[in-house]
Every structure is written in structure tokens, then in C-alpha cells.
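A student in our group prepared the protein record below, which I am reviewing. This is what I was given:
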Amino acid sequence: MTVIRRLAAIILLSLAYSSISRGQDNKTVNPAPAPPNLLLLVRQEFPYGKANARNKLEAAIARASNRFEVPSSWIGLQSLTGGREVLFFDPFDSFEQLEQSFDGWKQIYAAHPDLARMQEEIDALLTSERTIVAVRRDDLGYHADSIDLSETRFMRVVEVRLAPGHESEFVETFKILGEAYEKIKADSPWVVYQVHLGTQSPSFLIFMPMHALKQNDDLLAWKENLEEAEGEEAMKRLQEIARQSYASTESNLYVVNSEISHVSKEFAAGDPNFWTPTPVPAAKPAGTKGTVIPTADQDAAKAIARKTRERVRNR
């Protein structure tokens, strides 16, 4: 669950669902499976033993979002290496669309307060959260236009933090790498984002989407060919840049969790069985009207309400 939805929920709960301005254009879901122009990336960590509770709440909100006209989409990535964490990958076309999404979520929470309460319960489980906003750098990617995120099942993410004033050396590095990949005709594309908000030092993020883990075998097999394609002088230059310009680097592997993701119908069309598995239909009580939240969602909402009543009684 991203910071936009979390903040919107907090605002709605604190204002006791006060009136929301009307007339907003909330059609902000990015339907394209290509890497977005603007990326909101939220990294969350939870205490050991709380992952199952978190997943149930996130899945309930994702299922509800599949039925409602929510103003944003997201892909949930769970770590396979590094720390135990979840990475939410939220695509946007612009900062204007980001703002529209925030206003739209306030309206969603006003109409469906159970969602806001479930979001509050997720926040209570968090041990840490880091949010960044990054802009796509088309000049640094490798065949980025061929990337179809709807086919992604694993994601390799490399974060590079630079010493101040060394952005140009990073650009030089990826131009050298791109030329080498072209020479050996490598077929594993990547996309690069420059972080604009959320870090203290200049940072870049490299995303390498994968349909299967065996693509890592290709990367290992290409190593010697890449070094030969780069040439001795280029290799020395890359090593020099790494020593002088990089403050830190970290590379990790994530798996896509469709149960905690919400994507547009256009995005999911390539593999609807993966992105929108058919839920078990919930029986609609006789004599009721309007939207019925599935049983799992009702159970989560009831549990939250019960805990709230207990806290009130214990005061």
C-alpha cells in the first residue's frame, strides 16, 4: 500500500470523513505495460511473524480495488534476497497525475471507510517505510521500449548512490554498458530511473524485469563476452568510475505477488489468470443493496472494528 493511499486514509479518518471537493478528474490509472515515465516506489518492512497478517489485509484491499474505480495502480514485489521487505511499484505519467491520485483516494476512502480502516491496520504493522519518486531516463536504458511489465514475474533491482557531482560519470558507465550489450546482442532489457525525491545523495535505480529466474543464467553466461565487447580501456574506465563516483550499490531480486497488486484491465489483459485470478464469489445477503465486500474483506474489517472497540473499552 503506497504512501498516497496511506496519507489519504489518515486524512479521512482524522477529519471524520468530512466533505470532499468534487469535479476532480480521477481517470489516472496508467494502462500501459511499458515502464512508466514517473515512478513512486515504496519500500516497507514488517516484523517477523506479521507477514501473513499484512498479506491478508493487502490482498483484501487489492481485491476491493479491482471492483472499484480506484485512481492508481501498483505492483507488489516481495524480496527474495536482502532484507525481508515488500516493494510497491506505482506507475504514473506525471506529477499532475500523482496529485489527482491523492485526491481520488480521499474520495474512495470517504465512500468506503472499511478500506481506510484496513489501511490503518497495515500501518500499525510497519517497522519502517521509505518512499521515493523517480523519473525515467530513456537515454540510459537498454531496449527499455521492449519491456512489457505485464509479463514480469521477477524483478532485479539495482540501487546506485553517487558521491555529489558525479552524475555524469554514471551516465558514461551506462552508455559503455549499453554499447557492450548491443555488440553481443543481449536480449535482457533494463530501464533506468533517476531519483528526484526521497534520498540524501544523487541516486539511480536500474530495473531488469524477468519472466523467469533462468534469465539470470544468461547474465552469468554473458559475463566474459561483455568484458571482451567492452574492451580493456573501457573496463579500466568502468572500474575507475566505480571507485571514485559510487557511494554505494545494492542489487536484489524480487518476485511479483499478484495477490497484493492492483493493475488496470488493459495491463492485465496479457495474462488475466495471473493478474486477476477469479475470486470465490461472496453470497449477497437477502434484501441488501449496493456493493457487497467479499467475506475475506468483511472478516478483516470486522477484526479491525473489534480491536477498535476493545481499545475503547480498555481506556
